Amino acid sequence: MEFSLRLGLLVGTDDxxxxxxxxxxxxxxxxxxxxxxxxxxxxxxxxxxxxxxxxARRAAAQWEQITAAGQCRLFNGALCRLENFFAQDGALHLSxxxxxxxxxxxxxxxxEELVVALGETGPxxxxxxxxxxxxxxxxxxxxxxxxxxxxxxxxxDVIGGHVHPDHHVHEGVPDVFLAIKDEICSELGxxxxxxxxxxxxxxxxxRRHHKPELNFFAPLPLTMQExxxxxxxxxxxxxxxxxxxxxxxxxxxRHFLAEHEAHFTSxxxxxxxxxxxxxxxxxxxxx
Length: 287
Prior knowledge:
The chain is of the alpha+beta class. The N and C termini lie far apart (44 Å). The chain is 28% helix and 31% strand.
């Protein structure tokens, strides 16, 4: 299968959201835009990305060790692997294959070894999804991840998760918009009929794990207080320990980042960078 070169824009530039945040930002910005559902096309090859035998045995052993310890509530579900991406003529084009959560965690833990042995195509590259939600009364909900999750335990994050190719499907093809709406419903308890389609704001990549992240902007017709009430009954509320808020303006976000910058996941920072672009805010220097 074709695999795109990682030609993303390094965000440690004057266009960065977090100038002064750290010497090297923890994410790459590949693509930025404002794509509705009608402008996102997906090609799906239902072929499993299989690690070479020696790595596959170690991935299985690591999974057994993690799950036997009982400290993480994990399920080895199918995920979408990002094979290729490009933007052309106002549309975003994505190409997916398949991988799994077990191999994702192994890839995260052994990323340097995989790159040395297999090259840039060696990491699992399971596609994450993240959404900046803006409430009707002008707030951004943020979460602190639980200690028992597989990635980013205890970190500050936005609502998100993964695209599941056997569950988030429309006409036989994985549907990234259905996936992010499902994550919002599951983590915040908001009924699906209260959601409108978000827009895709771009594609980032975690520098450390070479994990791509598709980012969305999701304005909701609900106040922050209404979201808190729905969240009390959320099916996946155990994935976070706190539901925090920050006012959706440049000054408030700058102040919040100055206090908590070191505790954000890289996917959340990338999502905030793309949100800043949508809002057309100037650089938010925290130092």
